[in-house]
Design brief:
This protein folds into 3 domains: 42-192, Immunoglobulin-like (Sandwich), CATH 2.60.40.680; 196-359, Immunoglobulin-like (Sandwich); 374-436, Dockerin domain (Type 1 dockerin domain, Orthogonal Bundle), CATH 1.10.1330. It is 15% helix and 38% strand. The protein is built from 6 helices and 23 strands. It is elongated and about 95 Å long. It starts with a helix and ends in an 11-residue tail after the last helix. It binds calcium ion (CA) (2 copies). One calcium ion (CA) binds next to α6. The site of one calcium ion has 8 residues, from α6.
């Protein structure tokens, strides 16, 4: 009896278990497990310039660009058209160059507003758009600025102050939707060798300026440009010139360089043979992360050049000594096609060839007919009275503009005094104009 009851109970249990297993199949239902976290609306994929996915890690050099593509997912496609995405962007500013608005490339007709201070990014459009799964909504270009041995993470996320506020997607009804997406994260791994770090200065290979026989000094400006610079806090360079040709008058920092320079000392090193050198030690208050014109060296033509026979040539020599950054050496230096790869930073130099072109301005011949007569004086009087406007632009085939030729006393203005001097020259009362004397 006891055994029989036990067997019957076993059969009941077996039936219940079998029923529970078979029922879902019979009814065509599928058991689902609700995801603990919702599917994201967005994904972030890192690709190189060839479109190769870098998310798994790759080898990047300093200066390489990583494109981070913010892509739509099937969840976003299902959401339908929307007009903006607002998020915060976190990235390692030690490893990537400071991002600017121009580093964002939005989908067609969309615009990006990027607030550097708050890290807030808003990508929006005036016409609602829907994106399909995999579509790229915006690409962010990040430039590697330092050795990233290992990995670094770039993340689009919600309000850092309010962790409950995630990426906000706004639809056409202007109802802000707090996207339930988890933060969008991408990890870029790379191995950068220290030897690949490059510091490059560039200067023009030649400069042309005019001199004349009237003793007027001409200014020459030499721009020094950083072609490839990041993660250093100063550099030393020098410039040498021939004092019989030019005189150094000072320097000017570019508007972007001014934010970096903490101190700058210019020392004088007179050389033999009329050569003069200035060495410049420039210290920055922070890592310089800049590509572009950095400093302008200013010279003027020496009076010997202006009044004498124009020399046929001359050089200004630029020397790059080293870069101040003890912790990040070694480094490759480049200047004017020369390269130095020694750890000590062997000085390299390049020459800027100065090309002089002498101008023989025919003072007094305002109309350019090779004669100095009363017509020229009349033109000045008409200009003075407002009847005529003399050109200050040098025309084709001319040497000096009408205004320059009319200013025969070298006063910098064209007045009745100039007209009177032309009449005196025409009448033989003076042999030459004051500007020549
Ligand atoms: Ca004339
Ligand atoms: Ca004048």
């Amino acid at each position: 009896m006891r055994t029989s009851m036990k067997n019957r109970w076993k059969k009941v249990c077996a039936f219940v278990v079998a029923f529970a297993l078979v029922l879902p199949l019979v009814c065509g239902q599928q058991m689902t497990v609700k995801a603990a976290t919702p599917e994201p609306y967005l994904t972030l994929v890192a690709v190189d310039s060839s479109g190769v996915d870098l998310t798994g890690g790759t080898s990047l050099e300093i200066g390489d660009t990583v494109s981070l593509e913010l892509r739509a997912t099937a969840e976003l496609e299902a959401l339908g058209a929307f007009s903006s995405i607002e998020a915060y962007l976190d990235y390692d500013t030690e490893k990537f160059k400071q991002v600017t608005t121009s580093d964002f490339i939005p989908a067609q007709d969309w615009a990006v507003y990027w607030d550097v201070e708050s890290n807030k990014v808003n990508i929006s459009t005036t016409t609602d758009s829907a994106f399909s799964d995999g579509d790229v909504i915006c690409t962010l270009k990040l430039t590697v600025k330092s050795a990233v041995n290992g990995s670094t993470t770039v993340e689009w996320n919600g309000d850092p102050v309010d962790p409950d506020k995630n990426i906000v997607i706004t639809q056409s009804d202007n109802a802000s939707r707090q996207a339930e997406a988890v933060n969008v994260t991408c990890t870029v791994s790379n191995t950068v060798t220290e030897a690949s770090r490059v510091f490059e200065l560039s200067v023009p290979s030649s400069l042309t300026f005019y001199t004349d026989t009237q003793g007027r000094e001409k200014e020459i400006v030499v721009p020094i440009k950083i072609e490839n610079g990041s993660i250093y806090c100063g550099f030393r360079f020098g410039f040498t010139y021939n004092t019989s040709l030019v005189t150094y008058t000072g320097y000017e920092l570019s508007s972007s360089a001014g934010a970096y320079v903490q101190s700058m000392t210019v020392s004088d090193v007179p050389n033999s043979g009329g050569l003069y050198t200035h060495n410049v030690a420039l210290v920055s208050s922070k890592d310089i992360n800049l590509a572009g014109e950095f400093i302008y060296l200013k010279f003027k033509t020496s009076s010997a050049v202006a009044t004498g026979t124009a020399p046929t040539g001359g050089n200004i020599t630029i020397t790059l000594y080293d870069v101040v950054n003890a912790s990040k050496a070694p480094m490759t230096f480049k200047l004017g096609g020369s390269t130095s790869t020694t750890t000590a930073g062997t000085a390299i130099e390049t020459n800027i060839s100065l090309n002089y072109t002498q101008r023989q301005v025919h003072y007094g011949d305002v109309n350019g007919d090779d004669k100095i007569n009363l017509i020229d004086a009349l033109m000045i009087m008409q200009h003075y009275n407002g009847v005529r406007t003399l050109s200050s632009v040098e025309g084709a085939g001319e040497v000096g503009s009408e205004m320059e030729r009319a200013d025969v006393n070298g006063s910098g203005t064209v007045t009745l005094v100039d007209a009177l001097l032309i009449m005196k020259k025409y009448n033989g009362e003076i042999a030459d104009f004051p500007i020549r004397g």
